[in-house]
Amino acid sequence: MSSIISSLPFDPTLTYINGEWVGSSNSQTSSIKNPATGQVIATVSESTTSDLDAAVQAAHEAFYSGAWVNTYSGAQRRDALLALATSIEANRQALEHLESLNTGKPIRDVRVELDDTIDLFRHFAGYADKVEGRHIAAQTNAGLEGYTVKVPVGVVGFINAFNYPLCLLAWKVAPALAAGCTVVFKPGPQTPLTTLFFAHLLHSTGRFPAGVFNVVLGGVAVGQALVDHDLVDKIGFTGSVATGKHVIRSTASTARVRATSVELGGKSPGVVMPDADLQRTAELVISGCMNNTGMNCNALTRLWVHRSIYAEFLPLLKAAAEKIVLGVPQSEDTEMGPLIDRRQMDRVLEYIRIGIEEDKAQLLTGDSSHRVGQEGYWVRPTVFQNVDPQARIATEEIFGPVLSVLQPFDSLDNVIEIERKSEFGLAAGIFTRNHGDIARFTRRMRCGTIWVNNYNALYSYLPFGGFRNSGFGRELGYESFDGYLATKAIIDDITY
Amino acid sequence: MSSIISSLPFDPTLTYINGEWVGSSDSQTSSIENPATGQVLATVSESTASDLDAAVQAAHEAFYSGAWVNTYSGAQRRDALLALATSIEDNRQALEHLESLNTGKPIRDVRVELDDTIDLFRHFAGYADKVEGRHIAAQTNAGLEGYTVKVPVGVVGFINAFNYPLCLLAWKVAPALAAGCTVVFKPGPQTPLTTLFFAHLLHSTGRFPAGVFNVVLGGVAVGQALVDHDLVDKIGFTGSVATGKHVIRSTASTARVRATSVELGGKSPGVVMPDADLQRTAELVISGCMSNTGMNCNALTRLWVHRSIYAEFLPLLKAAAEKIVLGVPQSEDTEMGPLIDRRQMDRVLEYIRIGIEEDKAQLLTGDGNHRVGQEGYWVRPTVFQNVDPQARIATEEIFGPVLSVLQPFDSLDDIIEIERKSEFGLAAGIFTRNHSDIARFTRRMRCGTIWVNNYNALYSYLPFGGFRNSGFGRELGYESFDGYLATKAIIDDITY
Q: Which residue from A486, A495, A492 is spatially nearest to B450, judged by alpha carbons?
């Protein structure tokens, strides 16, 4: 394993700022673990406030000098991003191994994430040469010409989560760079390695001027310095509700207000109707919950099952959950990996305890040994049944492999009314062939993504994001590209 | 004059909540002054926190019941807004007189504002039946259908400024209602009257279900209750930087995060090049600064004049400023009215004092008597010359009839570099026939609106808003309509 680290084509003890590989300005470091074993696999630098300032200044200078927007045409940005996509593709095996090592993700899952990453850069590259304003015929005054000009918002600061380090980097960075923004990117503190590899590949294309993309490493302190920096024009944040609110408040507590786009998690419901294909649905539901060991903002974590099929369906769920193969992430047979670190594991185990002892919920799977082994951060797929829809495990985001099957329901309309009042509004899924039920569900549910007869299928082309406490703003799709653009209006009196 | 108040077709001591005219729940009232005379002209109610809650609950219920979005089609919303526009047009004289009385605006200016108001409702009515998602061909997976659905963001809370009470209401409310949102609207505390008249006309069309549009009255306390209310989905704010930051922080300090769109003011520069038509430009500049007595977020308040024309141009500015006719607002000859209240007047007089005593700037117009008369809140158009670009009067927003003509300049490129670093980024203007200078200026200035050879020409069709501390989000234009929509993505596995 450590041969993966020792054979990296870049020095992971450095980070990438202003086109150069630099250490922390006060030599701070942090240890990166392999969550499958709990062992330290690498040491990386930890950026200081002055490193952060250097990164923002570099991104600011790269933006305002026009190096990425004026000197470069949209076509050149497009081609730079295409070259980067090809480079990621050419190095995908090394990226897959590194991501699997750093996160514990099964190698088969990481391959899909690399497919998505490459696709995202190619997809958004295709917008880079299509930044367009509109000429508006001024009907009210024949002497005026008016048109809009779309410009990049400027320097974008990203605070990424740990659950999809490379893939979520692509979600954020591909449209931002395509739009002509420059970027300061902070990966989750546990998962910096593929971000650094990405920076190496970007730099190696030779097509990204210094300062266009910068990486800072660390936790709360560096993140705070980033959101507090007045030269950052917009903040993109993925993380918890509490931290997201703090980020928003920070953007309005410095000399200059900054705009934000935030994705803050969810407690997404699934609904199984009487005519569902029960076996297929059981597998889709379990995968919708347990994928990425449940560390997925849009995970299906509370399930409504119609009373008429409840008794028949639950054993299918149990079987699907219990057959998930946990194992060494790099094995082709492994289907689920560990949680990302001890803190997440403790949190998940605590929620299982809350479910059993406080919510008095009944387990469908497993016994009392929810942790697997003594090393690494492994928790079994866990399913509760007959859960009160108001129970803590049914309403609070656990971010682990825990599914609450709620008490049986009778009326889809009642379920919709309940879910529309949820604190969260990120995603939902329905399983049925009844066209009328699908139409009603997709129309009335207020959440960013609604899956019909599938779950978690996402691709670059459709926007993703929240309502209510799941946040605002959209990633993926044209809407995300547009979010990195600002509008100027030019009004010209041609009679002068 | 008081006959205008006594002949109003509605009771101004009440406000409009949930389709009914109601008083304040604890009988609080406030006095509304005529700023031309300082005399009290009406008494209105002041909403309590529980009135505010009733308004938000009404807007929430009207939204989630589907009364405005499902039961009503886009075409019905369109026709409701068209009926409202016609009703505003039919009652425009009464609205003009009321607005002029409440704000001191010259009657000729108010006529233009009524033209804009009517135009805004007709323009945005035309979007109500054009809310469109997109079907996205899923190239990566033939079994998936994906499409977006645009839905209204929900309940929108507006906090309006006092400077264009009816016109800015139209900016905000027309696109929000067209998009299918419901509204809770708080006018500036000094200027509620035309908002109440508007509510009366809206109600009288009979086409707006109860709760779709609600008015709450008051100052800081009611505004705070509005931004703190968890059932408000988005806040639209026009006002100062300090209050705007407070609003943003409030939206991230309650149980639920809410999105915001904020317009926070400006210190917009004009640039007069050597080949400008000096007489025409002098008039455009003075009007660009003094229109609405300078109480205009995008007022041209700092002027760069090229060295080669400086001596010739300044007397033209002086003459244009000094010939502005102040007088009874209702007179057809009056060109400029008073400031909105004593507080604004004191602020403006203080800035003039700062200019003279602290910035040591030299007056171009007038003598020591900047206030006109003893009653009402009248201040003369005031122009300083040869002002240091860093002076307080040249960098801080005064919001009154005060223009700073800066020290002469030589290089347009230097000006652009200076202005790109301004705290604000709302608007700018350039006066020249040189095509390359225009191109360079419009391309490199980072502000929401750039006027070429005119100033302040705005119309419904082009987006308006800020960069930097002038805020984010756009009003007017398609972009504003889109800001009242949220995106859902539906992903459907058709192989199920």
A: A492
Residue B3's pLDDT is 87
Structural domains of chain B, with CATH:
3-264+471-489 (3.40.605.10), 268-460 (3.40.309.10)
What is the Cα Rg of chain A in Å? 24
Of the candidates A148, A472, A493, the beta carbon closest to that of B452 is on A493
Pair of tokens at residue A485: 């653009």
CA distance A272 to A394: 17
Chain A contact set for B413 (CB, 8 A)? none
Name the DSSP letter for residue A358. Answer: I
Average pLDDT by stretches of 10, chain B with 496 residues: 86 97 93 96 96 98 91 92 98 98 97 96 96 83 88 97 97 98 98 98 98 97 96 96 96 94 97 98 98 98 98 98 96 96 97 96 86 94 98 98 98 97 96 96 95 90 94 95 96 90
Model pLDDT for residues A246-267, shown as the tens digit of each residue: 999 999 999 999 999 999 999 9
A280 burial (CB, 10 Å; 0-12 / 13-18 / 19+) is: middle
User: Residues with Cβ < 8 Å from B384, sequence gap 6 or more?
Assistant: B355, B361, B362, B363, B364, B393, B402, B403, B404, B405
pTM given for the model: 0.94
Residue A76: CB atoms within 10 A of its CB come to 14
Would the pLDDT of A352 be above 90?
yes
The Cα–Cα gap between B3 and B140 comes to 70
Closest CA to B262 of B274, B246, B276, B278: B246
Please check whether residue A269 is in contact with residue A425, taking contact to mean a CB–CB distance below 8 angstroms.
no
CA distances from A449 to A349, B123, B135, B359 (A): 29, 31, 14, 57
Residue type, A172: K
Supply the DSSP symbol for A291.
Answer: G
Structure-model confidence comparison of residues B461 and A392, the more confident one: A392
Phi, psi of A30 (to 5 degrees): -140, 155
Site from A488, A492, A493, A494 to mutate, B interface, most B CB atoms within 10 angstroms: A488
Q: For residue range A60-96, list pLDDT tens digits in order.
A: 999 999 889 887 899 999 999 999 999 999 999 999 9
Q: Give the one of A256, A464, A473 whose C-beta lies nearest to B468's C-beta.
A: A256
Q: Identify the closest residue of chain B to A149 by CA–CA distance.
A: B443
Three-state SS string across B90-111, please?
A: HCHHHHHHHHHHHHCCCHHHHH
pLDDT recorded at residue A437 = 96
The span from the CA of A282 to the CA of A276, in Å, is: 10
Q: Among B454, B460, B464, pick the best mutation site for testing chain A contact (most A Cβ within 10 A).
A: B454
Query: A474: which chain B residues are within 8 Å (Cβ-Cβ)?
Result: 487
Can B297 be counted among the known catalytic residues? yes
Q: What is the pLDDT of residues A38-60, one digit of tens each?
A: 999 999 999 999 999 999 999 99
Q: How far apart are CA B8 and CA B94, in angstroms?
A: 8
Q: How many CB atoms lie within 10 A of CB B325?
A: 10
B493 contacts on A by Cβ (under 8 Å): 451-454, 457
State the pLDDT at residue A463. Answer: 94
Residues of A involved in catalysis: 263, 297
Q: What is the distance between the alpha carbons of residues A214 and A219, in angstroms, rounded to a whole number?
A: 16
Q: Which of A117, A171, A443, A462 to mutate to test the interface with B (most CBs of B within 10 A)?
A: A462
Helix pair B220-228, B49-64: axis angle to 10 deg: 40
* CB-closest option in A249, A457, A486 to B144: A457
Please, is B390 exposed, middle or buried when counting C-beta atoms within 10 Å of its C-beta (0-12, 13-18, 19+)? Answer: exposed
* Neighbour-count burial of B369, counting CB atoms closer than 10 A to its CB (0-12 exposed, 13-18 middle, 19+ buried): exposed
> What is the least distance, in Å, from the CA of A289 to any CA of chain B?
17
